[in-house]
Amino acid sequence: MKTQIGLVQINNSFVDACYFPYSVGLIQAYFQKHSNAANDFEFLLPLYRRIPVTKAVNYLKDVSILGISLYVWNVNYSLEIAKQLKKFNPKILVVAGGPHVPANSEQFLRNNTFIDVVCHGEGEKAFLQIVENYHKWSWDEIHSISYIKQNKYIKQKKSDRISDLSIVYSPYIENIFERLLQKRTGHKWIGLLETNRGCPFSCTYCDWGGNNL
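Given the sequence above, the corresponding structure tokens read:
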């Protein structure tokens, strides 16, 4: 039986349209193309819009690994889902990433003890390695992550940015969203395209560069 993974990226929605969850789509596409253990895991349809927290928890209650992408507009809602899931299943692995994860995450992790690991910057490589080490529950060799171990805050070395974008697979081309398109959602879809990654600067008011992570 495959280990189930649930991904949550809550985007803004309009009256009759929702954004595709592009960021977690990249995470899933990268994992499925590069992981030697890809056949051992199964991804649920990503959660991409606000529904009642109890309904979201019920949908995700059987997953063993939860990945949440945190932005300023979804952080409280997403954290509440993760908190309730951890309460329902203390053995679930909760991984958080996205622009809202602070560069120094010690206080963030201590304030949100239901989160096991946070990813800094690009999440494709880190999430793949975290999932592949799920059964060992060991993250000591993984770069660009932080976690609490035996009450000690550990921040691993930062990985270099991915420079060869040919190894990052499009969730559109890889049909990651095909099941969403086939599902009768009752709304239209808005597609996002990433035309560049990151920035050489590290302005403190902006998340795009992230050189200080």
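The domain at 3-190 is CATH 3.40.50.280 (Rossmann fold). Try to locate this feature in the token string yourself.
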